[in-house]
């Protein structure tokens, strides 16, 4: 663990998840004196509990702009920090005519560089057993292994001389001064990248942004038959969650079809998708539940719903669970919370569950406005 800086820094980042580390990277590359503090002994929050899916193409608006910039930064960092950023893209599996209609409209909008439509055989070559009508390949998307990438990124920063003070909680933030459990730090600018914990540190700011906590149920399952699937995989339910898809005219008909056939999937906020870890394990998810505080008890029916739909996607009778966990992220009406809370102090959270995708692009934009 690095000690707190004894002299003032240009930028202090609070939070060593992907959003905080992205700000530290961008500040370091601009030649700024930057330091990071985090309350835990290592990154253990949303940044290591996700799919590791850099889901570039399905975004729209500012999120797409941040995602495209972030993609280039991830590829650059992979070479520098020694982790893998697989340029394997995303496979979108369409099993309803309404899903294929959304993909056709999306492909017409974005063009062949971003979206390559597939027939049933093209999907089956990439994911046997899916029983798809067709689908699409999104070649720009990346796959990362979050539990190894985030520590590697933190380690690279420390190797570059950026101190990260772990097990250091923030008590108060003032212009030019951050008080922590290990002492005070003076900083010209401060970025609070504490994710959903902003509602504990600065509850009024979180409430003003309409922030709540989104709880996810996620599973790691054994690959059926040892299958290897290179791209991340999205399904028709994903077409209802990401702005680039959900904004297409046919998305309304798709939602109606899902509501008529499987309303329990919408009730549980299911976004059926998966990625495969380097060791072959499948990260399967996820469900979405929203509350300021979540009960500590997990309903097994939710896991059974994911396992049922996952088995159908792979075309097998059942899946064998290796691990289970809860994910949690900040959620708000806007995709990003970026607000000045005091002179030179910014609270920055990704409030849409796409932190791995947009953090680096967002950090670059924030620093442009700070310095």
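^ structure tokens above, recovered residues below v
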């Amino acid at each position: 663990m690095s000690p707190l800086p004894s002299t003032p820094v240009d930028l202090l980042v609070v939070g060593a998840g992907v959003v905080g580390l992205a700000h530290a990277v961008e500040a370091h590359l601009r030649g700024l004196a930057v330091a990071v503090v985090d309350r835990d002994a290592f990154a253990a929050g949303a940044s290591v509990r996700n799919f590791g899916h850099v889901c570039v193409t399905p975004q729209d608006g500012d999120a797409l702009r941040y995602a495209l910039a972030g993609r280039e930064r991830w590829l650059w960092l992979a070479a520098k920090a020694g982790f893998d950023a697989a340029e394997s893209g995303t496979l979108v599996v369409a099993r309803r005519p309404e899903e294929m209609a959304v993909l056709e409209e999306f492909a017409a909008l974005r063009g062949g560089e971003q979206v390559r439509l597939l027939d049933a055989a093209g999907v089956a070559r990439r994911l046997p057993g899916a029983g798809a009508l067709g689908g699409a390949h999104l070649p720009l998307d990346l796959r990362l292994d979050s539990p190894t990438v985030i520590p590697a990124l933190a380690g690279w920063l420390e190797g570059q001389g950026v101190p990260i003070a772990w097990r250091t909680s923030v008590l108060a933030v003032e212009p030019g001064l951050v008080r922590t459990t290990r002492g005070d730090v003076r900083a010209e600018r401060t970025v609070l990248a504490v994710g959903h914990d902003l509602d504990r540190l600065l509850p009024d700011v979180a409430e003003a942004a309409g922030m709540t906590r989104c709880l996810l149920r996620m599973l790691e399952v054994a690959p059926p038959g040892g299958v290897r699937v290179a791209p991340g995989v999205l399904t028709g339910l994903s077409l209802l969650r990401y702005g680039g898809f959900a904004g297409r005219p046919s998305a309304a008909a798709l939602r109606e079809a899902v509501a008529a056939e499987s309303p329990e999937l919408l009730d549980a906020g299911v976004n059926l998708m998966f990625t495969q870890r380097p060791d072959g394990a499948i990260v399967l998810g996820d469900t979405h539940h929203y509350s300021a505080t979540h009960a500590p008890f997990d309903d097994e029916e939710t896991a059974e719903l994911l396992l049922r739909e996952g088995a159908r996607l792979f075309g097998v009778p059942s899946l064998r669970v290796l691990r289970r966990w809860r994910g949690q992220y900040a959620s708000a009406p806007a995709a990003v919370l970026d607000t000045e809370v005091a002179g030179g102090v910014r609270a920055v959270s990704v409030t849409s569950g796409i932190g791995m995708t947009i953090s680096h692009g967002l950090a670059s934009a924030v620093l442009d406005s700070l310095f």
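The two ends are 28 Å apart (CA to CA).
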